[in-house]
Design a protein that fits this description.
81 residues, mainly beta, Immunoglobulin-like, 4-stranded antiparallel beta sheet
């Protein structure tokens, strides 16, 4: 049986105060969606290597990485200080 390649999705630094570096090795990843603790969509961005999160309020966010059709591929949490 062939081992599946390891994929990575995350942010550095985490917790963050402003700019973060996005690490994503998931094939087909195109967009990011940030949801607050209540589940409301608060920020959306095309996939980039670096994001400025200074305009996000302090809190814990669930971040989804989506493919070109909007299907979720992975999720992680980000703490904004």
């Amino acid at each position: 049986m062939e081992a599946l390649p390891k994929t990575t999705f995350g942010f550095h630094p985490n917790p963050a105060t402003g700019n973060v570096v996005v690490t994503c090795t998931i094939p087909g990843a195109r967009n990011l969606r940030f949801h607050n603790a209540l589940g409301a969509l608060v920020f959306e961005s095309p996939m980039r290597q670096q994001l400025d999160l200074e305009k996000l309020a302090m809190g814990i966010y669930t971040v989804l990485v989506l493919d070109a059709e909007g299907r979720p591929l992975a999720q992680t949490r980000l703490v904004r200080q």
